[in-house]
Fold this protein.
Amino acid sequence: MTTATEAPDAAGRTAARGVARLLALRTAAPDTVVPQASAFDTYYREVYRDVSKAEEIFRGSGVTQRHMAWDPRTAYADGFPTIKPRMAAWEESVLAMSRRTVGGVLEDAGADELRDRIGTFVMASCTGYAGPTPDILLAKEFELRQDLRRTFIGHMGCNAAFNVLKTAFDALAARPGELVLAGSAEVCSVHHRPEVSAEQAVVNALFGDAGAMTLLGADDGGPGPVFLGTHTETHPETTHAMSWHIEDLAFRMTLSPYVPFYLAESIEPFVKRLLAPHGLDVGDVRHWGVHPGGPKIIDFVGEKLDLTPEQLAPSRAVLAEHGNCSSATILLILDRILRTSRPAPGELAVLMAFGPGLTMESALVRF
């Protein structure tokens, strides 16, 4: 667990000092927007014609549109490509999205003054592999320091943004005078496979493409969002419930329909263990970012924590407009909270995501 420390403020009072301050956040997605209803009617209906609940799955996904590097209505019209062109498309799209997000956070924060202070770059993607990894190519393109410390995190799934953030927090703890670029980019659309099952219909009804990048600095007591701490738990008895493997044609995801039930059983004590070190409980938190692994996950978590429709709105909006974009999703939700909920200074947020393991990740943010 990563937790804030106590430090005196300017008036000599003791105040919670966070593990990192959010200096900038940018998101990006492929330009192609794929409406859910149109994609089902013109493509997926035929693909899943032998799955009796296919239309119900797509209509009930909570997704109204997705941004996709590969529009399934055209990319798979002549069959299913092998892994090589899929990985080429992944690399191209990750770099395209990340040019926008990295460039955006540097612009927002004042690149000329801060560029030389960026000492660490942490990036995640679980939807592809290439070497040099994208962070190397981006560091070269944006002329970042030659002694830049880089970490590329792969194959950790929808919770990987938290692993990115925790690595960034450790870097700032060791070198508080430096800044950290931290983010992810995912291209789920390149992994559609010729498997006709209800499970794969769920996967193809949910996942979209997106990227997000943050610029983080040590908490200096200034204004703006501060990460106060994180909490992680893994429940190995449920390792069978979610998986992500490379097969001959594409990556293959398995997603048990019982995942929402597993999470519902664990979510209350999990959140309490995040909040307790800060003397907080659920009622003290105004804003919530729940990773939308699917609409039932939002429903079950909201019910268990007694959250209001308003508190769940950012998660539902991101699911509707982008789908589940794997590791990038929670940063899309944080961006949504900042832009639309407009938290007041001092208000709190809990962000959470879930991935293979089953792994549960969370972070506490003070605005």
